[in-house]
Amino acid sequence: MLLNSNVLVLNRSYLPVHVTSVRRAFTMVYQDLACVVNGRYETFDFESWRRVNTRDEREVIGTPSGAIRVPRVIVLKHYDRVPKRHVRYSRANVFTRDKFTCQYCGSRPPRSQLNLDHVIPRSLGGRTTWENVVCSCVDCNRRKGGRTPEQARITLKRRPSRPRWTPLMNLPVSNVRYIEWRPFLTIIDAGSTTAGIAE
Predict the structure, then answer these.
(1) CATH topology (fold) of 91-152
(2) Which of 88, 103, 128, 174 could form a disulfide with 134 if both were Cys (CB 3.0 to 4.6 A apart)?
């Protein structure tokens, strides 16, 4: 669903600090906590973004006052803190850590066909942690069911682990899901290899 898709959030220095949903990004822009920013570093408050031409856009949300383009990058108005190394556990971060790839069969289906899978199922005492959850396709998730990979006779491609910092930092710019993110991830690549993103 478009409202649940990802938006890159930048601090006031234009460094990525986390990823949020389109729904939350709209709320932050409407409440004047953030501005939408495009690849030319132009910023838009809610009213000016609402007036951006949507005629040739595929990603728009219908509102009572007309269509509004989905933002892919926002910049916070009052957040200067330098990103930390802590990585928040989230569905989006697990998908990013695993490169949107099923950790059982290696396929890369559309995001709508991806699930999170507990390697050791919750019914067997498995916990919802970085070390026990992987990205899986719907078919592998169904085939595995409430069993361990060994019980289901499927192989885990890579043992899951907590990233040292936000997986976004480790994504090659060419693999970024949204083209609008690329200018801001390039800034990170050029600036520092040790900075992390807190979410």
Answers:
(1) DNA Binding (I), subunit A (1.10.30)
(2) 103
Question: Pairing state of beta strands 43-44 and 34-37?
Answer: antiparallel
The number of residues in the chain equals 199
- The CATH 1.10.30.50 portion of the chain extends over 91-152
For the full predicted model, state whether its pTM sits above 0.85: no
Q: What is the mean pLDDT of residues 153-157?
A: 95
Q: Which residue has the tokens 């050029």?
A: 190
Reported as a pLDDT band with limits 50, 70 and 90, residue 138 is very high
pLDDT digits (tens, 9 = 90+) for 165-193: 555 554 544 445 688 887 777 544 433 33
Asked if residues 168 and 96 have their Cβ atoms less than 8 Å apart, the reply is yes
Indicate the DSSP class of residue 95.
H
Query: Which residues 6+ apart lie within 8 Å of 194 measured at CB?
Result: none
Residue type for 125, please?
A: G
Dihedral of CA 164/165/167/172: which sign?
negative
Give Cα separations from 133 to 22, 77, 83, 139 (angstroms).
24, 34, 25, 16
